[in-house]
């Protein structure tokens, strides 16, 4: 987690500070402190953080919506200086620790969290992460506008973590017109909230540039919102505190007004304004598509019977997953094309199929049949069978919990590499622990899709089959940690498909999996070829 920074001889005789790479939220806060988007010089102490939680204000009375804190491992809690680095270990800033404080997150049983507060000083500008050239500082944007003598119009910030479809674009143009002074229109600054480590929906947002008022400016920022981001390019849920934080950042860029694009389902603007952001958060008039006139119009002028419902984020994801074009009344063609590039059809995305179940449940038998089917459907496929993996990749590992977790991690790694190149990996280990399966899911979803099949054959049936005589041995006490007998099997609660092998023969079980893959769009539909 941390190590001593080598070779820092700037101040001879002074002990070298340990280095620490903050987690995603800590890093996002750090970037906003360093680029001047936040009006304070570092991470907050306990009193400020508690004051924000209780009354939405810093101790000195300034409204502020979220604590800006830095979690550190316990081993760093006693330090008085820290070098904060990016995830690759390059120094970003030095933290002069003013306070160490700890607390538990939520209930008493939760582990103690250690935090350090204090001012940060930039070591060198950040280089890591995606879209660096678009991560322009607030001061740069303000200076650019000051150079322009015609820039006397209000500045409307549009903060978005998702693509701008027709509705949002109409709303933005209408608001920019309404806010304009002297017959002009407000200028537009699009703040794309993208993760630090990848581009998120940024390229799809940028694709809408020609559809926004001329001279609209685009910047990328990462707003910290723990646990919000989904894996798709459609953004996540915004709370009113998230929205208020976005408003503070937008104001730092010089914005006078903000419109949050949250897919039409953002937090109530009144509740955001109650947190006293430093600019006006707009509650734009809803726009609807009038299917009679084939036009987008303000809600009030559309006959409710003719207002077409917008597809939900899930529906958009589903259309893209099946390789279908998004409807042109909903998405501008250029945005749709970029989304199709960001989210290729499932037939082209990597896929990991993980079969989990007791020994003898039928994993290998079904996995073999499914591999044949996938190959026949024209996709490259690799089978990572439990027994075979144990003879090769995981030779020498035992059946302790630790070794089983290592086994599944290795399988997950190989599967994710197969997925990175668009291939299908079919894995058939017992994978008895929820944590191990979740780890594989996370590894795989970086590059492809994950599909969990629970081969839910009851223990009695597996034991009666006892193909390898192992159950008898285990019952006789000769195999320790035998899954289902002397070792645990945690039933999955997140299986995408549960297969019954009691009332079905192998061919039927294979067919059930193949049907699910076809239905989900991972295999070409044979009727369409
Ligand atoms: N203690 C114990 N518990 C469970 N299974 C045992 C054990 N010892 C050996 N075997 C044989 O190893 C096969 C399971 O290996 P896996 O790599 O799939 O297991 S795990 O995912 O690491 O839990 C499993 O194969 P399958 O029957 O194909 O599941 C068994 O044949
Ligand atoms: N519907 C079914 N699907 C898979 N296997 C089945 C089914 N019905 C009976 N079986 C039998 O159950 C046994 C499963 O063994 P195997 O596939 O090696 O399981 P595992 O890999 O889970 O240990 C095989 O002998 C297979 O013929």
From TrEMBL:
<comment type="function">
    <text>Catalyzes the synthesis of activated sulfate.</text>
</comment>
<dbReference type="InterPro" id="IPR059117">
    <property type="entry name" value="APS_kinase_dom"/>
</dbReference>
<dbReference type="Pfam" id="PF14306">
    <property type="entry name" value="PUA_2"/>
</dbReference>
<dbReference type="InterPro" id="IPR025980">
    <property type="entry name" value="ATP-Sase_PUA-like_dom"/>
</dbReference>
<keyword id="KW-0067">ATP-binding</keyword>
<keyword id="KW-0808">Transferase</keyword>
<dbReference type="GO" id="GO:0004020">
    <property type="term" value="F:adenylylsulfate kinase activity"/>
</dbReference>
<keyword id="KW-0597">Phosphoprotein</keyword>
<dbReference type="Pfam" id="PF01583">
    <property type="entry name" value="APS_kinase"/>
</dbReference>
<protein>
    <recommendedName>
        <fullName>Adenylyl-sulfate kinase</fullName>
        <ecNumber>2.7.1.25</ecNumber>
    </recommendedName>
</protein>
<dbReference type="InterPro" id="IPR015947">
    <property type="entry name" value="PUA-like_sf"/>
</dbReference>
<dbReference type="InterPro" id="IPR027417">
    <property type="entry name" value="P-loop_NTPase"/>
</dbReference>
<feature type="binding site">
    <location>
        <begin position="357"/>
        <end position="364"/>
    </location>
    <ligand>
        <name>ATP</name>
    </ligand>
</feature>
<dbReference type="InterPro" id="IPR050512">
    <property type="entry name" value="Sulf_AdTrans/APS_kinase"/>
</dbReference>
<dbReference type="InterPro" id="IPR002891">
    <property type="entry name" value="APS"/>
</dbReference>
<comment type="pathway">
    <text>Sulfur metabolism; hydrogen sulfide biosynthesis; sulfite from sulfate: step 2/3.</text>
</comment>
<keyword id="KW-0418">Kinase</keyword>
<keyword id="KW-0547">Nucleotide-binding</keyword>
<feature type="domain" description="APS kinase">
    <location>
        <begin position="349"/>
        <end position="500"/>
    </location>
</feature>
<comment type="similarity">
    <text>Belongs to the APS kinase family.</text>
</comment>
<feature type="domain" description="ATP-sulfurylase PUA-like">
    <location>
        <begin position="27"/>
        <end position="111"/>
    </location>
</feature>
């Amino acid at each position: 987690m941390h190590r001593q920074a080598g070779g820092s001889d700037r101040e001879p005789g002074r002990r070298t500070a340990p280095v620490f790479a903050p987690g995603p939220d800590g890093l996002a806060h750090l970037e906003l402190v360093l680029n001047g988007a936040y009006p304070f010089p570092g991470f907050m102490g306990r009193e400020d953080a508690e004051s924000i939680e209780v009354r939405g204000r810093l101790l000195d009375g300034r409204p502020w919506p979220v604590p800006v804190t830095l979690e550190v491992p316990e081993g760093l809690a006693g330090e008085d200086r820290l070098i904060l680095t990016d995830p690759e270990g390059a120094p970003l800033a030095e933290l002069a620790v003013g306070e160490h404080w700890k607390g538990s997150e939520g209930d008493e049983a939760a582990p103690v969290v250690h935090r350090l507060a204090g001012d940060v000083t930039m070591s060198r500008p950040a280089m890591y992460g995606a879209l660096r050239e678009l991560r322009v500082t607030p001061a740069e944007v303000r200076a650019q506008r000051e150079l322009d003598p015609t820039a006397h119009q209000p500045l409307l910030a549009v903060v978005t973590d998702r693509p701008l479809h027709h509705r949002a674009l109409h709303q933005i143009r209408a608001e920019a017109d309404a806010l304009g002074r002297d017959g002009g229109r407000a200028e537009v600054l699009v703040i794309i909230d993208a993760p630090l480590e990848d581009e998120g929906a940024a390229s799809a947002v940028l694709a809408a540039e020609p559809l926004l008022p001329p001279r609209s400016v685009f910047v990328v920022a990462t707003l910290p919102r723990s646990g919000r981001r989904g894996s798709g390019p459609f953004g996540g849920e915004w709370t009113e505190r998230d929205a208020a934080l976005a408003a503070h950042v937008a104001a730092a860029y010089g914005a006078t007004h903000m419109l949050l694009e949250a897919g039409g389902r953002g937090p109530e603007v009144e509740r955001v304004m109650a947190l006293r952001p430093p600019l006006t958060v707009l509650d734009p008039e809803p726009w609807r598509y009038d299917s009679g006139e084939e036009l987008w119009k303000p809600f009030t002028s559309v006959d409710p019977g003719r207002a077409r419902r917008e597809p939900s984020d899930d529906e958009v994801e589903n259309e893209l997953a099946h390789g279908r074009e998004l409807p042109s009344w909903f998405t501008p063609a250029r945005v749709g094309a970029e989304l199709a590039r960001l989210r290729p059809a499932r037939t082209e995305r990597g896929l990991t199929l993980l079969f989990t179940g007791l020994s003898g449940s039928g994993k290998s038998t079904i996995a073999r049949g499914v591999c044949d089917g996938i190959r026949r459907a024209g996709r490259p496929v690799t089978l990572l069978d439990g027994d075979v993996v144990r003879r090769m990749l995981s030779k020498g590992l035992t059946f302790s919990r630790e070794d089983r977790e290592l086994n599944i991690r290795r399988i997950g790694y190989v599967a994710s590499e197969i997925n990175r190149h668009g291939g299908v990996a079919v894995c058939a280990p017992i994978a008895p622990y929820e944590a191990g399966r979740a780890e594989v899911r996370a590894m795989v979803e970086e590059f492809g899709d994950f599909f969990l099949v629970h081969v839910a054959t009851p223990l009695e049936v597996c034991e009666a089959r006892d193909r390898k005589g192992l159950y008898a041995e285990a019952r006789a006490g000769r195999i320790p940690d035998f899954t289902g007998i002397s070792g645990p099997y945690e039933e999955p609660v997140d299986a995408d498909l549960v297969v019954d092998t009691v009332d079905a023969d192998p061919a039927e079980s294979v067919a059930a999996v193949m049907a699910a893959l076809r239905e989900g769009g991972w295999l070409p539909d044979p009727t369409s070829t």
